[in-house]
């Protein structure tokens, strides 16, 4: 079933917690992003395979990285990697995983504050300037901003 022509069947196999890990390896390189995202959501995926999926940095793989960020099987190593993702939605999603350490959450928060501080939106800029966790070096730069 993991090699079925119908991607809907392969998706069901990928998301099924009872699917053997040997089958997960067949689905890892599936042509369908939906199948790989379902595999990244599977709570019984091996951390090694989840890390491989989380390392797909293409923009079309954002749903895969989002699923990996929410997966309870995600290790702190995987979450630390995803906390540095280019997509802000992936970074924010890392904060929803109970496995995220305080250090990882702090990194996500600091990155969000820096992005807000240097955003073109004056409202975001002011929010970041007023946030108590904004680092002093960024406050100094922010004071000289045209906003």
Automatic annotation (TrEMBL):
InterPro entries: ARM-like (IPR011989), ARM-type_fold (IPR016024), LRR_variant (IPR004830). SUPFAM superfamilies: ARM repeat. It comes from the Bacteria. This is Leucine rich repeat variant. It comes from Herpetosiphon gulosus.
